Amino acid sequence: MSYPYDLDYLLPDDQRYNIYVATLIPKLSIDEDSVQFFENYIRFDVMVGTGEHTSREILDISIFSDDKPEFDHRKFEFDYEKPRKAMVFTGWKKGPIELSLLHVYREDSKYYLDTEIVYIGQAFGENGERLPAEELMSDPMLQKVEEALLREYPEKDLALLLLEFNSQLLEEIDSEDEDLIQLQEITKNPSLELNNQILNATEAALINYFKPEYNKKLNNDFSNVEDHGLHYHSVTVQVHPDIMGLKLFSKEKTYLSNDPIVSSPLHSNS
Question: Can you give 150-192 as a three-state secondary structure string?
Fold first, then answer.
C-alpha cells in the first residue's frame, strides 16, 4: 500500500502488481514532540484520524532488522516531512534512512487500519505486464477519483492498494460420464498462465463483490476465460488483508479475511 505521491519510491518487491485499489484511510500523523530515542528502538505517538475521531497510538520501532549491524538509535537525528508523511533518520554512516509513516503503521500497529475501497482499476498492459509507476500515476480515471475524493472526503487520505494475483487451476468434474475425458484434458495441459482475460475477470469479480463507489459501471456479465483450449466456469479470488494489516470494506460489503470471492458463470454449457 502506498500514497499516490510515493509510487516512485516503491521497493522492487512492492512493484509486482496487476490490479490497483483506490482506498480511503484515516489521516496519519506523528506527534513530533513525542519522539524518543533509545539504544535499540525509537518511540513516538501516531495520531490516527482527525477531529473528534482522532485516536493516539504509541509505536516502538527498530530501524534495523536482525540481519543488519547493531546501531545505537540514540545517534539518529530525526526529521518529519509532513507533505509526504515520511520519517527521515540521519546519522548513519551509509546515509539517511527514509520510512513511510503508512508503511511503519501497517507493520507495527496492533490494530488493523480501516481501509474503504472506493475504486478498483487495472494496472497492467496489453499483455498482462505491470504498468510502471509513472503510467499508473497518470491514469486518467485514477486522477479523476483522486480529485473527487479530495473534494468529498477531506478528512481522509487516498492510498493505493497494489495487488498481485497468481493464477491456479482448480478442476471440477460435473458429469460422471465425462470424468475420464475431463480429467485427461485437464492433466495433459500446462499450468494456467496469468493473462489479460484472467486479470479482467479478476478485476470484474472484485468490482461486483465490493461495488466500489467510483466504479460507475459494474461488469455483471463475464466473458469466457479460456486458456490452452479449456473453458473456465467461474473465477475465485482471495485476498489476504490481515497480512497487510488492513480491514477491507466498501459501502456495500465488509470483507472477512481469506473469504473466497466467487463469480460465475464465466462460461455456459447451455
Answer: HHHCCCEEEEEEEECCCCCCCCCCCCHHHHHHHHHHHHCCCCC
Phi/psi of residue 15, nearest 5 degrees: -100, 10
**Residue at 16: amino acid letter:** R
Grid cell for residue 77: 537525528
What tens digit of pLDDT does each residue of 178-223 get?
655 565 565 554 455 666 777 788 888 888 889 998 986 544 444 4
pLDDT tens, residue by residue, 136-158: 777 788 888 889 998 999 999 99
How many Å apart are CA 96 and CA 86, to the nearest integer? 12
Contact 131, 124 (CB under 8 A): yes
- pLDDT, position 120: 92
53/256 Cα distance (integer angstroms): 24
pTM recorded for the entire structure:
0.80
| Angstrom distance (rounded) from CA 123 to CA 128 | 9
